[in-house]
């Protein structure tokens, strides 16, 4: 499922995408041409309840500050239109980039390929961070203990990502 900055959700045969007009130049990283750039959302439904949530891990690219939002609130606040049913989320860190590399609109220029390669490297670095620093006990403790963990986690993550050396991760775009 994808959300574009014009706030429409897309779903296509289990692989989400948003169609771009041919006249618009495509660039993966944030820029002025993002009107129809794909954007992954995760819908979480809790067992034995009617509760559902949206996890929007990439919304900050479009100025959305909240990462975890109740589903109905997210849809209403962002004026989204659900155009298809969500599919099971079985994507790897770079599956969307692999898919983008098959779309002619996303492979027209060398800059687009370079953007995908840089994005792939950054995502692999972040995944490496999660593997090393996120344990099963991350949510254990009181609310104040969690806030302390969150601040520490954020600081460690900032240091880790700011020392990003894109030569250490291979690409396959």
Structure, described:
- The structure is a single chain.
- The chain is α+β, with helices and mostly antiparallel strands and 173 residues long.
- The chain has helices spanning 71-77, 95-100, 110-133, 143-162, and strands spanning 2-3, 8-10, 42-45, 52-55, 68-70, 81-82.
- The strands form two sheets. It has a three-stranded mixed beta sheet, with no helix packed on it.
- The radius of gyration is 17 Å and the shape is globular.
- Residues 1-34 have low confidence and may be disordered.
Low-confidence runs (pLDDT<50, min 5 residues)?
1-34
What is the total tally of β strands? 6
What's the pLDDT, averaged over the residues?
73
Global geometry: globular
Summarize the main sheet: 3 strands, mixed
Number of helices: 4
Protein name: Zinc mynd-type
Organism: Fusarium langsethiae
């Amino acid at each position: 499922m994808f959300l574009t900055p014009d706030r429409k959700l897309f779903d296509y045969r289990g692989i989400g995408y948003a169609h771009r007009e041919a006249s618009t130049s495509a660039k993966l990283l944030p820029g002025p041409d993002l009107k129809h750039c794909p954007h992954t959302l995760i819908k979480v439904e809790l067992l034995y309840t009617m509760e559902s949530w949206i996890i929007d891990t990439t919304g900050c690219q479009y100025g959305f500050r909240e990462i975890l939002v109740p589903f109905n609130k997210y849809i209403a606040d962002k004026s989204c239109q659900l155009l298809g049913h969500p599919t099971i989320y079985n994507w790897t860190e770079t599956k969307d980039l692999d898919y983008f590399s098959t779309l002619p609109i996303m492979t027209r220029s060398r800059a687009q390929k370079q953007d995908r390669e840089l994005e792939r490297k950054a995502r692999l670095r972040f995944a490496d961070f999660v593997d090393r620093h996120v344990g099963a006990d991350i949510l254990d403790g009181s609310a104040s203990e969690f806030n302390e963990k969150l601040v520490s986690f954020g600081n460690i993550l900032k240091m880790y990502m700011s020392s990003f050396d894109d030569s250490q991760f291979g690409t396959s775009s």
